[in-house]
Amino acid sequence: MRLTVHHSHDVLPLWQESLSKLLQANKLTIEEAHTLGEWHVATFNDRVVGLAISSGNELRYFAVRDLTRRRGIGRYLLADTIRWLIAEGQQQVTMNINSVTETEQAGLQAFLRQAGFHAANDTAWTLSL
């Protein structure tokens, strides 16, 4: 199987368990995540390995399963989500990282910097498209 990003709220039954594990790390349920915006679901071998949620030009949620990190999944998910946002007419992407745990912040900041984002302030990061 190959890594695929699905831009949809539709959750296949075989994705339920892996999606729940991904969201549990951030104390979210599938129902709560549905209210955040448009879903960009990364799957590999019929399992959810990453999820980005956007609303307008804001990335409201971004996570990759800890077991699958450092394999390019986050880069692929972010790039495909950005392509989708460009197709939707967005000219900038913002992400607020204040809800990210302290232990994850440095890694996320390095990831965003590598992807071309710039820190607008202590918690807001932006990328011009």
Structure overview:
The chain has helices at 16-24, 30-34, 73-87, 102-114, and strands at 4-6, 38-44, 47-55, 58-64, 92-96, 118-119, 124-128. It has one domain (4-128): Aminopeptidase, CATH 3.40.630.30. A 7-stranded mixed β-sheet has the order 1-2-3-4-5-7-6, with helices on both faces. The protein has 4 helices and 7 strands; from the N terminus they run βααβββαβαββ. It is of the alpha+beta class and 129 residues long. It is 33% helix and 29% strand. It is globular. The mean pLDDT is 92. The termini are far apart.
Keywords, please?
7 strands; Aminopeptidase; alpha+beta; 4 helices; 129 residues
Counting DSSP E segments of at least 2 residues, the number of strands comes to 7
| Mean pLDDT figure | 92
Query: Approximately how much helix is present in the residues?
Result: 25-40%
Strand order of the largest sheet: 1-2-3-4-5-7-6
- Please work out how many helical segments DSSP would assign: 4
Proportion of β residues?
25-35%
CATH homologous superfamily, by name? Gcn5-related N-acetyltransferase (GNAT)
Named CATH topology: Aminopeptidase
H and E string: EHHEEEHEHEE
Q: Looking at the structure, what is the overall shape?
A: globular
Briefly, what CATH class?
Alpha Beta
CATH architecture: 3-Layer(aba) Sandwich
> What's the number of domains?
1
The gyration radius over C-alpha positions equals: 14 Å
How does the helix and strand content classify structurally? Answer: alpha+beta
Low-confidence stretches: none
N-to-C span: 31 Å
**Sheet of most strands:** 7 strands, mixed
